[in-house]
Every structure is written in structure tokens, then in C-alpha cells.
């Protein structure tokens, strides 16, 4: 199972997607529970992936060190904005399996939303982490400034990211003209990106674009029972106050509370009601539990995003027959297409 462990509610940046730190009353800036309670829970899980989360997790490096020194886990990782990487000593980085670094694509797009100079720092730090043997994942937030094809191809061309993943800046932000952008820019860009992915596949190379790989893997291996991020059934988030939540950003929402480190219950039926009759449910799992619950853009906004999700899924799934052919011909190995998003803490569906 995936354990997203919040180290602090504090953040050192104020990106315009989320605005920075959580208030201390909502997510304390230091850890308020006994670490042994975390240890008991995590060590009971033989398959534990622990990913440090925040706020900005590197704002509390001492806790990361304490956890890595005292708790046994199968896999370690971090979701970071990639700026304060030097606050964690190198020996701990060397123990990390994966680092997800926030970067939105080209320099001007990243710096516009995250702050001047951020792009250069993140690329430099990604290169440093990669040199230490940490797997690096570019974690993009995608909004109307993005040309998805250009941003993803740019990040892949840098050679410092092993995988690329993105999330759409929809529903949890202010309503914007998503539909115009989606049909004129985003979906055509996804088609081009899929062409590139397939061209490389024909050469026997799997380009690690998570929103493609996660859907293809669900087709061939394990279908999604609920949201692909695992929220509430394959993944839990431990807030700094010791509450156990289904989703790490739902720190104020009662529906997300599964219990505490003393005792909590996973969701028995993780697939959202809205998705039970959807033909794509096994490849999508409901996209995002948070946005299904919160629906900041109303029913209409939800439907608009959902239509775009279905179009993207169609683009990916339309290539399954060709992929089967490449497996039959021995161009690629089926096993190499296996992808478990809970090992990386990616959400698969943008
Ligand atoms: S495509 Fe939409 S309706 Fe279907 S499973 Fe995903 S979120 Fe649910
Ligand atoms: S995809 Fe949605 S439900 Fe899953 S972790 Fe992200 S915000 Fe939470």
C-alpha cells in the first residue's frame, strides 16, 4: 500500500495553483503524533511504499530523517517542488527510490506559475538526484498556458527525468475556459504525443509517459477498482496531526477522514457512484476522488472535464490492438508495460 506521509503544512513557494502553505490549524507545520504509531502501521504492511508529502516535505527534513532511520518500508519517495533538495543529506537521498519534482514544462510556462528562476533550480536538482541513483519523475500541473505536446517533449528531451506525469488544473481551481483549450489544444496535443509514444514503441522503446502507461497497464494487468491514485483503498495519507485521510489534499474535508493512526478503515467500495456504469471505469477508476466529492465547477463543469477524460482514454485505448501486435512480434515485452501508480504516487488520469 502507498503511505503518503505529510511532514509539514508549510511550503517555501506560493505557486498559483495552490497558493502555498496550509494554515497551521489545518495541517500543523510540525508532526504532532508519536512516530512509533506510524511505525506500527507501516511495518504491518509488507508492501509499504512511503512517499513524503506536504506542504513542502523538505521544510521538515528532520522528520524525514527520523522516519527513514526508524521505520522499515519496501520503497521510499518524495513529492517535492524540487527547490530545497540540499536540506536532506545525500545519504538519505541515496536511500530514496523515487522523487517526483514539480515542473510544468518549458521554462517560461513553469516560471509563470511557480516563480522566476524555479525551472532552472528544479532541472539542476533533478540532475543531481538522478546522479545519486534516484528515479526522477517530472510532475506537471497543466493549465491553459501549456501546449501538452511541447511541454512533455521538452521535459523528455532534458534527459534528467525518467518519467513524465501531469495533472490538469481543473475543478480545484477557479473555473476557466477549459473546454475551448481542451478541444483546440490539449486533445490534439495528446494525439500527437500518442503518435510519438507509438513510434518509439515500434522501435522497442517504452517512453515513460505515465498517463499513457497507466492506462495501457490497466488494460493488460490490473484494472482499477477505484481512482488510480489508490485514494482510500490502496493509498492513505497521514496528516501531521495523525489523522489518516483518503486523499492528501483533502485536509479539511470530513468525507476524506478514514480515522487516525490508532485505527482507520479503508474504503470498501472505492469506485465513485457516478462511474459505476461508465465503459471506461476499469481504466480510469473515477479520475479523482477529491474532484468527484467537491465538484467546485458544478455538475456542468464536472461533465465537461469528464468528456475530455473520455476523449483522452479513447486516444490511448485505440492503440491497444497495435500494442498487442508488437507484443506478439516480440518488439516489446508485455511485462515491461506493467505500471503500478501506487509505487510512484502518480494519479495516472490527468
Ligand atoms: S471517465 Fe468519467 S465517468 Fe468514467 S470512470 Fe472516469 S471519471 Fe468516472
Ligand atoms: S487524484 Fe484526486 S483523489 Fe487522488 S490523490 Fe490526487 S486529489 Fe486525491
UniProtKB/TrEMBL annotation:
<protein>
    <submittedName>
        <fullName>Radical SAM/SPASM domain-containing protein</fullName>
    </submittedName>
</protein>
<dbReference type="GO" id="GO:0016491">
    <property type="term" value="F:oxidoreductase activity"/>
</dbReference>
<keyword id="KW-0408">Iron</keyword>
<dbReference type="GO" id="GO:0051536">
    <property type="term" value="F:iron-sulfur cluster binding"/>
</dbReference>
<keyword id="KW-0479">Metal-binding</keyword>
<feature type="domain" description="Radical SAM core">
    <location>
        <begin position="6"/>
        <end position="141"/>
    </location>
</feature>
<dbReference type="InterPro" id="IPR058240">
    <property type="entry name" value="rSAM_sf"/>
</dbReference>
<keyword id="KW-0411">Iron-sulfur</keyword>
<dbReference type="InterPro" id="IPR023819">
    <property type="entry name" value="Pep-mod_rSAM_AF0577"/>
</dbReference>
<dbReference type="InterPro" id="IPR007197">
    <property type="entry name" value="rSAM"/>
</dbReference>
<dbReference type="InterPro" id="IPR023885">
    <property type="entry name" value="4Fe4S-binding_SPASM_dom"/>
</dbReference>
<dbReference type="GO" id="GO:0046872">
    <property type="term" value="F:metal ion binding"/>
</dbReference>
<dbReference type="InterPro" id="IPR013785">
    <property type="entry name" value="Aldolase_TIM"/>
</dbReference>
<keyword id="KW-0949">S-adenosyl-L-methionine</keyword>
<dbReference type="InterPro" id="IPR023867">
    <property type="entry name" value="Sulphatase_maturase_rSAM"/>
</dbReference>
<dbReference type="Pfam" id="PF04055">
    <property type="entry name" value="Radical_SAM"/>
</dbReference>
Amino acid at each position: 500500500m502507498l503511505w503518503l506521509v505529510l511532514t509539514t503544512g508549510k511550503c517555501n513557494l506560493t505557486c498559483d495553483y495552490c497558493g502555498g502553505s496550509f494554515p497551521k490549524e489545518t495541517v500543523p507545520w510540525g508532526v504532532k503524533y508519536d512516530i512509533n504509531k506510524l511505525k506500527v502501521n507501516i511495518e504491518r504492511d509488507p508492501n509499504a511504499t512511503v512517499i513524503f508529502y506536504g506542504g513542502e516535505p523538505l521544510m521538515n527534513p528532520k522528520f524525514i530523517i527520523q522516519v527513514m532511520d526508524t521505520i522499515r518500508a519496501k520503497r521510499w519517495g518524495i513529492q517535492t517542488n524540487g527547490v530545497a533538495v540540499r536540506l536532506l543529506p545525500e545519504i538519505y537521498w541515496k536511500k530514496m527510490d523515487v522523487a517526483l519534482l514539480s515542473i510544468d514544462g518549458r521554462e517560461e510556462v513553469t516560471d509563470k506559475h511557480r516563480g522566476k528562476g524555479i525551472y532552472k533550480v528544479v532541472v539542476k536538482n533533478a540532475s543531481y538526484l538522478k546522479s545519486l541513483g534516484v528515479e526522477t519523475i517530472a510532475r506537471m500541473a497543466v493549465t491553459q498556458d501549456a501546449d501538452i505536446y511541447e511541454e512533455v517533449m521538452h521535459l523528455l528531451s532534458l534527459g534528467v527525468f525518467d518519467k513524465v506525469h501531469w495533472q490538469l488544473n481543473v475543478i480545484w481551481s477557479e473555473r476557466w475556459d477549459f473546454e475551448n483549450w481542451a478541444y483546440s489544444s490539449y486533445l490534439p496535443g495528446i494525439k500527437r504525443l500518442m503518435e510519438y509514444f507509438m513510434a518509439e514503441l515500434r522501435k522497442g522503446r517504452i517512453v515513460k509517459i505515465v498517463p499513457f502507461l497507466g492506462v495501457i497497464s490497466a488494460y493488460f494487468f490490473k484494472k482499477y477498482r477505484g481512482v488510480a491514485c489508490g485514494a482510500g483503498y490502496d493509498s492513505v495519507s497521514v496528516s501531521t496531526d495523525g489523522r489518516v485521510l483518503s486523499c492528501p489534499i483533502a485536509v479539511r474535508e470530513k468525507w476524506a477522514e478514514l480515522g487516525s493512526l490508532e485505527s482507520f478503515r479503508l474504503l470498501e467500495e472505492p469506485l465513485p457512484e457516478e462511474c459505476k456504469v461508465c465503459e471506461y471505469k476499469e481504466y480510469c477508476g473515477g479520475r479523482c476522488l477529491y474532484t468527484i466529492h467537491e465538484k467546485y465547477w458544478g455538475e456542468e463543469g464536472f461533465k465537461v472535464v469528464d468528456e475530455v477524460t473520455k476523449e483522452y482514454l479513447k486516444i490511448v485505448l485505440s492503440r491497444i490492438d497495435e500494442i498487442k501486435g508488437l507484443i506478439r512480434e516480440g518488439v516489446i515485452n508485455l511485462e515491461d508495460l506493467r505500471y503500478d501508480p501506487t509505487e510512484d504516487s502518480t494519479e495516472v488520469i490527468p
